Amino acid sequence: MKTKVGIIGGGPSGLLLSQLLDLQGIDNVVLERRSREYVLGRIRAGVLEHGFAKLMREAKCGERMDKEGEIHDGIYIAYDGDKKRVDLNSLTGGNSVIVYGQTELTRDLYDAREKMGGKVIHGVENVQLHDITSDNPSLTFEKEGQSEKIECEYIIGADGFHGVSRKSIPRDKIKEYERVYPFGWLGVLSRTKPVSKELIYARHERGFALCSLRSQVLSRYYVQVSLEDSVDDWSDERFWKELKTRLPEDVAAELITGDSIEKSIAPLRSFVAEPMRYGNMFLAGDAAHIVPPTGARGLNSAASDIYYLYHAMVDHYKKGDDTGLDNYSKKALARVWKGQRFSWWMTMLLHRFPQSSGFDNRLQDTDLDYLFSSEAALTSLAENYVGLPF
Ligand code: APR
Ligand code: PHB
Questions:
Q1: CA 60 to chain centre
Q2: Where are the domains of the chain?
Q3: What is the pLDDT of residue 42?
Q4: Quick one: which of 75, 176, 272, 362 has the most CB atoms within 10 Å?
Q5: 286 CB under 6 A from ligand 1?
Q6: Considering every ligand atom, which ligand is closest to the CA of 347?
């Protein structure tokens, strides 16, 4: 098989790039290890920047997002028994975010690929990258016991944090930066009316909590838990009790509980690999960087990679201009690090750290106090939360 762009990974990054390139007539193939059902079974965050939404519309995948997604003009930060609103809209001169689940977004991308007859191959095993630094890179893989080869001009590593692309770069050609946090998030999805129309990020002495939602009948809640905990330690009853304890009393009183329909624990990690290019292979999304979910940056950081890569590929194939490809890593990383900084800061601000001293805790108090006493500080939070320009 022959194609122009071989994309490894059928998550949001790989699918969105595939769709955008196809619309420009740039032939590509997506290789995905899992089945479509498996990919769509993953529950992940759901806060989209408008820059991302615009890209989805450009990819002709924005219809359902625009119909079913909710525009959120603000978020709440709760601490010391009270909740305070961050008016994203007024602080950013009219910007906001769209709440639309990543699962739904991925479904829309799969549907669009299918409609266009996009080449997405599921169930591939043992994907290997060859001759990455040559002008004729290729991919080999196995499917149902058969060995296959795809010759391409470029390879995109959009295969997530545990993928094979980043690992194919020689150790001395890549530098990895990492911070692992000493706790995880226990998330529960329930078919209940959300306690608040807007997200509530709560800091409490027992740990962080988040009230989020997928729609007005589907809630997503989280509590910070120890890394030693397993889902089995957390009955629904224990979860709801803990969540209520960490929320202001008036919010807890309004909280509608119900059976969990999904429950999982995710560790928190900050990670960046540099550079995001090796030869004719480009890394994008979680394959190159991950953030703790606190600032809702994960998917949005992937979106800016795709935006830069898409434009760079179009310039290459339509105008013979390689400036975008040559500058991709530098440009993408500049924005990636800003997302890293913000996610790290939100995480430090709102979580209880097991080893933290009285001094650390007082600094956290002061950071929150300063935040809500300074329009400049609040504006900084707001402009990062709605997304810095691409
Ligand atoms: N071969 C083929 N496919 C692979 C391989 C491999 N060796 N390794 C991983 N994959 C697939 C995974 O099964 C997954 O579907 O690559 C895909 C990567 O998707 P994601 O992990 O979702 O990463 P990405 O598309 O970059 O999405 C950005 O934003 O909110 C965040 O972390 C969240 O997934 C989200 C991310
Ligand atoms: C979610 O809805 O899953 C969610 C929302 C905001 C975050 C993290 C997760 O910061």
A1: 21
A2: 5-70+100-178+269-347
A3: 86
A4: 75
A5: yes
A6: 2
